[in-house]
Amino acid sequence: MQSVLISSAFFKNFSLTFSSKLTFSTTTTKKVTSAAVNKPVRLPPGFNPVTPFAVYVKEKMQNSTGERASEAVKKVAKSWKEMSNLDKNPYIENSKLLTEQRKDEFAKLSEQKKEELLEGNALRLEKRKRSSLMRDLHKFYKQTNKPKRSLGPFLLFCKAEMEKTQVPKGKEEVIKFGKDFGEQWKVLTADEKKIYLDKAANLKNLYTKELEIWKNINADEISKWNAKLESAKPKKVVTKPKKMKALK
What we know:
Keywords: DNA-binding, Nucleus. It holds the Pfam family HMG_box_2. By secondary structure, this protein is mainly α. Among the domains are: about 45-110, High mobility group box domain (DNA Binding (I), subunit A, Orthogonal Bundle), CATH 1.10.30.10; about 145-230, High mobility group box domain (DNA Binding (I), subunit A), CATH 1.10.30. The protein has helices at about 10, 50-60, 70-80, 85-105, 110-145, 155-160, 170-185, 190-215, 220-230; strands spanning about 30-35, 235-240. It has a two-stranded antiparallel ribbon with strand order 1-2. Helix 2 (about 50-60) crosses helix 4 and helix 6 crosses helix 8 (about 190-215). The longest helix is centred in the middle third of the chain and has 33 residues, at about 110-145. It is elongated, with a radius of gyration of 28 Å. The termini are far apart.
């Protein structure tokens, strides 16, 4: 099987699904996140290493027509696993070449541009990590039947009014209904509002009691989640450490 040299331009936009998890260590930047101290710096998209599998996928996907991308990728992945090491060698060599090209392209950037890209990429990765963590957290809430926060008086009023009218469809209708309910709420008398205020207070008390029960039952898991959330908080980007002045 002959090696097919592929332009590195394609891989700048290649899906992260097939991007390598390898990292480069670099000393060209002055700013790094506190999480990256003493760790290899992952380069921004478009400059990370290219895997042999990514080269193979690119070649095969160009020839796939009239087939769903997900199905085509599954077939390509299966054929890759069945290939011998000898057949994979051309793609391995090609991936090394493209990886070196990426490193050279990154090295040619100005120091300011490198810093901007690295900082932006670090923030992007942190955001993605937090998003994944929040999805898992909501799964935990669902699995443990966490009580849902009770509605306030105005929302209880809106709910009651919605039951009397046709349910709005579309964003514009919902916004219009919300404005109309807001105007109606403003002109209600104190006695009319009291009905919803009292109901909201009762629901809030019930919610508070149920929440305490839920917290007691899941105390250990909640403690673990709090630790995870604390560690996932956005980390400030730091510059070079300032020189410490001697104590007088």
